[in-house]
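Now for a typical sample entry:
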Amino acid sequence: MRALIIVDVQNDFLPGGSLAVPNGNEVIDVINELQAQYSLVVATQDWHPRRHQSFASAHPRKKPFEQITLHGLKQVLWPDHCVQESHGAAFTAELKMAAVEAIFRKGMDVTIDSYSGFFDNGRKKATGMVDFLKGRGVTEVDVCGLAADYCVYFTANDALDLGFKARMLDFATRPIDLANYEAIKIAFAAKGGEVLTD
């Protein structure tokens, strides 16, 4: 069975949000229409505590988008975003949620970021999504949402590592950095993933 994973279609990643993905709003209607093609739909949600260590504001004299080493891992410092129980962390009201069977929250450990819907960036803690999907007999996943070159890619890449056949839905995602995303697509396909353009 193939499942659809909707990644982080939250207010802070949309126009007007604190970490808006360029043209991120363009994916909403596409994802709403896609959902009817799947018998199982799940979603991920960035859900950071205040003063998360991936926020530039947690590091004096550091600015958003600078890169540091955080507990042994490379870390981009982000603007504060998707803070638990904030408007920015909520799914956009335009996203249809009736078919979404489960929501997997990530980024809840204040000490480590979590791009993937399956694990934190150090792969120290799992979100539970792999067990849920395998328990439902899922063997293939299609990944869409925001942002293409971070959370969508990391989720799809981990899906490959976990034994799923994985596809990134290029037409239902948008990147933060287009050049980075183009390189990622090539690497993902070389690893055995598929990038669907329409």
In short: The two ends are 20 Å apart (CA to CA). The longest helix spans residues 148-161. The beta strands are 2-7, 41-46, 67-70, 73-76, 100-106, 140-146, 165-174, 194-196.
